[in-house]
Amino acid sequence: MNEPNAYISDRGPLWVRNLRDIKVIRDPKAMDLLADPTRRKIIDLLRAKEMAVIQIAEHLDKTPQAIYHHMGKMLETGLIEVAKEERIDHFIETYYRATAEFFMFTQGEEKDEEGGRLQEARTREAVQALPRLGLGPGIDDKTVAKIVALARKMDQAWKGKLAQEVSEKVAEMEDIDYFTKQFVIEYAQVASMSSKQFDDMLRQQKELRELLVTGLKRKPELAKQRVP
């Protein structure tokens, strides 16, 4: 089953910093932004505390101009937000924070070509990394395309339909710790499926496994062996 791209931090309970536990992102541009390591570092810093651009620049050994470039893009896509503004003499200093502790990325409609290209690129990168684990010599582009199509179908059917409502309700459960909430979401999604939906999910997972095993030119029984 295709898992949504996620960038996770373990910095403790969300409500301490007035952040949301989970934020569902459907904008493929936001997904693309977090492919950049500098932006991921910025998000990590802004989860820990509110910071100004000059502070972020000092932490990352970058120029403020370079940080402003990244901040503008992340503001547009809702990954960060303005936390407060402080007047220092005649200058207004703006402080930013991340909008969530955990970003769950889910694909939009099939007509979203940009989202499809991004997911295809990430799927290709993921399957090409499998041989590094000793899972076969590689996988061809034709099989990658089939995996991408199947993964998007599964994502839209399960994650896209349920993630928004479930994650927002779970985020309000302040008596449950962050990591337990991830299990709550997963179990709620499975429990919310009809028998037909669950059977379809199992069928699609089996199809995904067969594509991977065949694409990697491995015999199915080899999949049971421990990865070296």
In short:
The chain is an alpha+beta fold.
Explain what the structure shows:
The strands form 2 sheets. Strands 1-6-2 form a 3-stranded mixed sheet. The chain is of the alpha+beta class and 228 residues long. Strand 4 and strand 5 (91-98) form a beta hairpin. It has 8 helices and 6 strands, in the order E-E-H-H-E-H-H-E-E-E-H-H-H-H. Helix 5 (113-129) crosses helix 6, helix 6 packs across helix 7 and helix 6 packs antiparallel against helix 8. It is globular. It has helices spanning 28-33, 37-48, 53-60, 64-76, 113-129, 141-171, 178-192, 195-215; strands spanning 6-8, 20-25, 51-52, 80-88, 91-98, 100-105.
Biggest beta sheet attributes: 3 strands, mixed
What is the ordering of alpha helices and beta strands? EEHHEHHEEEHHHH
Unreliable runs, pLDDT <50, ≥5 residues?
A: 1-19, 220-224
Alpha-beta content class: alpha+beta
Query: What is the strand arrangement across the widest sheet?
Result: 1-6-2
Tell me the Rg in angstroms. 20 Å
Mean pLDDT: 77
The percent range for strand residues is 5-15%
Task: List the defining traits of the structure above.
alpha+beta, Arc Repressor Mutant, subunit A, 3-stranded mixed beta sheet, 8 helices
Topology, please?
Blueprint (H helix, E strand, L loop, with lengths): L5 E3 L11 E6 L2 H6 L3 H12 L2 E2 H8 L3 H13 L3 E9 L2 E8 L1 E6 L7 H17 L11 H31 L6 H15 L2 H21 L13
Helix pairs in contact: 3-4, 5-6, 6-7, 6-8
